[in-house]
Amino acid sequence: MDDTLNDQPDPTVHGALKWAAAQLQHLPNPDLESELMLEFVAGEERLWLVTNLDHILDKSQADRYITIVNERAGGQPLSYITGQKEFYGRSFKTTPEALIPRPESEVLINQIKTIVQRKANPKILDVGTGSGCLAVTLACELPAAQLKATDISPEALKVARANAEQHKVADRILFLEQNLLLDETDHYDVIVTNLPYVEDHWLAASPQAKELAAEPRLALSGGETGLELIEEFLRQFALKRSAPVVLLEHGDEQEQILVPFAKKLLPEAHIRSVQDQFGVNRVISISINE
Ligand SMILES: C[S@@+](CC[C@H](N)C(=O)[O-])C[C@H]1O[C@@H](n2cnc3c(N)ncnc32)[C@H](O)[C@@H]1O
Hints:
Layout: H1 2-6, H2 13-23, H3 30-42, H4 46-51, H5 59-73, H6 78-82, E1 84-87, E2 90-93, H7 106-115, E3 123-127, H8 133-141, E4 146-151, H9 154-166, E5 173-177, E6 190-193, H10 200-205, H11 228-240, E7 245-249, H12 255-265, E8 270-275, E9 281-287
Parallel strand pairs: 3-4, 3-6, 4-5, 6-7
Antiparallel strand pairs: 1-2, 7-9, 8-9
């Protein structure tokens, strides 16, 4: 593979892109990804790329490009290669220690902004913060909010802290290693949580699961049913009632099990399903009278 580029007497931007797209044919967007990776290696924007197709890459750039294209061809997620992913219009550091933020989780931010709009100093808990994309985005969007962000993974918490520092909101987020709500004694205006919800048998057998192999299993596995952690969270919430509102992200069609499950634990609660930007039921919102 290396030879394809090295053999080229003229390793131009155009030549490199063509070579990379051929290596990435098995992926859904080979042209786009080839461009993104070359922008990353060259430290340039797309406009530079398309207006410099005859530019000759220097050897270190060409070598680096070959390495990362091969990594991508082997299944490494683009966000782990570039070390960043955009979420709600901001750039987040991504490493294999934390789940890559997903666009469908952005619906949680919109919902919370509406819920707390009349609160002067909203207190928000993010359970299973991972990269910190939810807590950090909320801190940026709601400058008077105070947040606590918890995770059972100390490695993920380091990534989350780095993201809070990068976005200059670390002074308003308390990061804590914590198992669900077990040690929780505080009270909040809202709790948000995007816990792992993938079924173990799907992770083990589905061809699509290969795309998830580089991400932490702790961030994906929801046990055999996919719902073990979410259900445990709901049991603990029903006992502690640490907030009047909980927003909980879930997987495709899991609301069909989760809504009746939550209703049984919290018979007086008002529970509604919220769709993501793709029109899929993605979140359940649980409101209780305290
Ligand atoms: C699906 S990821 C979500 C990360 C991030 N909130 C997001 O939306 O991208 C779930 C996170 O829950 C954490 N987690 C798993 N089990 C947990 C537990 N028992 N208590 C707290 N966090 C847990 C994982 O380490 C992971 O960071």
